[in-house]
Write a structure and sequence with these properties.
alpha+beta; 18% strand; single chain
C-alpha cells in the first residue's frame, strides 16, 4: 500500500541559458526533488540572453521572481 504524503513541498529553481552557476544548481535541485512529497518546477528566465532567442525562456518566470522579491522584500533578482 502506497502512503499519501501529509504535505507536498513545492520548490522552484530559476535558471538561465548563460548562467555559469545554473548547471550545478540544477544538479542540486534534482537531488532535492527526489522525494515523493516534493514537487519541483524549473523556470528558465528570459533576461539572460546570449544573443539568440531561447524558446524555453519564459517572461512569466521573471514575473514570478519579481513577485517573490516583493513579498520577501528582497534585493535584486538572483539566478540560480
Amino acid at each position: 500500500e502506497q502512503k499519501t504524503p501529509e504535505r507536498i513541498v513545492f520548490m522552484e529553481l530559476f535558471t538561465a541559458e548563460i548562467c555559469p552557476f545554473c548547471p550545478q544548481a540544477e544538479r542540486h535541485f534534482n537531488d532535492l526533488i527526489q522525494g515523493d512529497d516534493i514537487l519541483g518546477f524549473s523556470c528558465l528566465v528570459d533576461y539572460f540572453e546570449s544573443g539568440t532567442h531561447n524558446p524555453y525562456a519564459q517572461p512569466f518566470c521573471k514575473t514570478q521572481q519579481d513577485l517573490y522579491r516583493r513579498k520577501i522584500k528582497g534585493g535584486s533578482r538572483y539566478t540560480p
